[in-house]
TrEMBL record:
Span list, region Disordered: 15-69
Gene source species: Oreochromis niloticus (Nile tilapia)
GO terms under cellular component: nucleus
Protein name, UniProt field: Endothelial differentiation-related factor 1
Stretch forming the signal peptide: none
Regions of compositional bias (Polar residues) in chain numbering: 21-32, 48-58
Major localisation: nucleus
SMART domains: HTH_XRE
Compartment annotation: Nucleus
UniProt keyword Cell inner membrane present: no
Keyword Transcription among UniProt keywords: yes
Biased composition (Basic and acidic residues): 59-69
Pfam families the UniProt entry points to: HTH_3, MBF1
Gene that specifies this protein: EDF1
Segments forming domain HTH cro/C1-type: 81-135
């Protein structure tokens, strides 16, 4: 009795095309004939090993001889920092502490390895009282007068 309560339904369904069949030229044209919407897109360099091709730009870059690098602090500025610091009786660590920077920053500025930063240069100028920027490097720093 329990088995007869359920009706058995058989559904026959035609399977759709597989991915490879759907992509074939024949499948596309037949779908277009039926009036179905077909969307095709060309993939760039699909199925080819084009990532290692030598282009004109690559050759141009190879011929380029200009070496690009960051400007460094001139040695003249490093010497002025060192002399000003010694005149004030400060070590590199003392000067670094005074301007809230690491001692390595002062060492880099003194031996010309640092990339100039106007904010750090201004702090060092005020701490040692000597100009480090502009045309009169090494001259005493004039305090700004308030008007």
């Amino acid at each position: 009795m329990a088995e007869s309560d359920w009706d058995t339904v058989t559904v026959l369904r035609k399977k759709g095309p597989t991915a490879a069949q759907a992509k074939s030229k024949q499948a596309i044209t037949s779908a277009q004939r039926r009036g179905e919407e077909v969307q095709t897109s060309k993939k760039w360099a699909a199925g080819q090993n084009k990532q290692h091709l030598v282009t004109k730009n690559t050759a141009k870059l190879d011929r380029e001889t200009e070496e690009l690098h960051h400007d460094r602090v001139p040695l003249e500025v490093g010497k002025v920092i060192q002399q000003g610091r010694q005149e004030k009786g400060l070590t590199q660590k003392d000067l670094a502490t005074k301007i809230n920077e690491k001692p390595q920053v002062i060492a880099d500025y003194e031996c010309g390895r640092a990339i100039p930063n106007n904010q750090v240069m201004g702090k060092i100028e005020r701490a040692i009282g000597l100009k480090l920027r502009g045309k009169d490097i090494g001259q005493p720093l004039e305090p700004k007068t308030k008007k």
